[in-house]
Amino acid sequence: ARRAAIHERAREERYGHTARIHRPTPLPPLPPAASLARAEPDPRFSDWAVAARRLSLGYLDSVSAPNGVMLSAAPRFYGSTVRFHGRVMTTNALLAEKQRFAQRWPERRYEPHGEPRIACDGASATCLVRIVHDFTAASPARGARSQGVAELTLTVSFAGGAPVIVSEASRVLSRAGA
Length: 178
Fold this sequence. Notes:
There is one protein chain. 34% of the residues lie in helices and 35% in strands. It is an alpha+beta fold. Strands 1, 2, 3, 4, 5, 6 and 7 form a 7-stranded mixed sheet that branches. The longest helix has 19 residues, at 45-63. Mean pLDDT is 84; it is low at 14-25 and 33-38.
């Protein structure tokens, strides 16, 4: 799981902003089965996965809320610094980015497909969360609409005790009508 997370972060950094149509890339080989059999799961992972799921789905739900609700809820989801689509920024800079997004797309709806995929890493005290979701964003004033299927990737940190998002990226998997 850690190798997959590192591979994904490297791909995000290589391509910059990840909200692009996904082109499948080969995955690295799995470690030998013998090494997997010896690995004992970290007892914290179960609790972390539950908390990361709750935080991630709550975040996705908040982004579908009206602008004022979304913007007032946003600070509780994030750590003091966040890697947002490959750029490291403070929470204040991230909130300014979220405000611009909300103004550009005042009507938003995000609906997850099934359950998030979650992989936790004890060494970094994080969980990588992937949520495939339908999205619709509209700006009636501009006469603009965007919809399709995307994947949201969040890194949730437990280093400070309470779970917070320390990395966020997304990529469009398909667009409606494309």
